[in-house]
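Researcher: Final request for today, and then I'll write up notes for the group meeting. The sequence and the SMILES for zinc ion follow.
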Amino acid sequence: MKKTILLFYLLICSQAQAWTLEPNTARGFESNEIDIYIANTDCSGAGFSTNQYESLIKSAVKRFWNNVPTSSLYLSVKGIRSDIDISGDTHSSALAKVPNNSILAGCNDSATDFSSAGILGSAVMNCSGDTCKAVLILNAHANSGLPSLSSGDQEAVIAHEIGHAFGLGHSEYKYNLMYYSISGKFQKWLGMDDIDGVSYLYPHESELDLLGLSAIGNCGSISLDGDQSNGGNKSLFSFLIGVLSVLLLSKTRNIKNLF
Ligand SMILES: [Zn+2]
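Model: Predicted protein-zinc ion complex:
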């Protein structure tokens, strides 16, 4: 039986790895429990109020990131911070206002930050020692493409940027949340790359033990914006869930880019 598991695992490991880490940090937060705050900013240009933004974030983390069986990541949405205003801030100046070990979500109507209507949002993560913080900003410029999206697609955009905020880069394959664009798809669930990436950064060790895979060690290699680096805990369970997700995803959408 163990030989069968090992053989199947090796077959999985022989697959090309398509998920990446956030290029600036190449790591996750120190804790698997990360707080998310909403900044006191005007998101009306993105098509929703600040209160609706909070609801979208809660739905996004519940639908995509907080229920991955092979990951221990838990994103806790703590609410609107009336004392934190990032209106007009760049990503770097907004980062300075983010509480340690948390993610701050806001909006910006700056034409400098969002020179193209096709850019729906962006996120920046920064770590120093054991302390990490990240900010995600949605495009609330007058020509933002966000208002024309369904609430489900808005959730997917937010979940994508949260993925960057806790340490993931892009996947090169279309049917993953962390693909750079939502063009031509309806992202309803995580894909295999998303599940593998979040399970690598925030592993659920008991799941690996249950499957008898923890003793086998790391699998394959992952790419860091084209460069190869070590790592990548892969599990049979995440593989099967990923395949199921890919089989279920379909439908067409207009071209919208995520950064
Ligand atoms: Zn992106």
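Model: Residues 1-14, 214-255 have pLDDT under 50 and may be disordered. Residues 7-19+197-247 form one domain.
Researcher: Thanks, that's everything.
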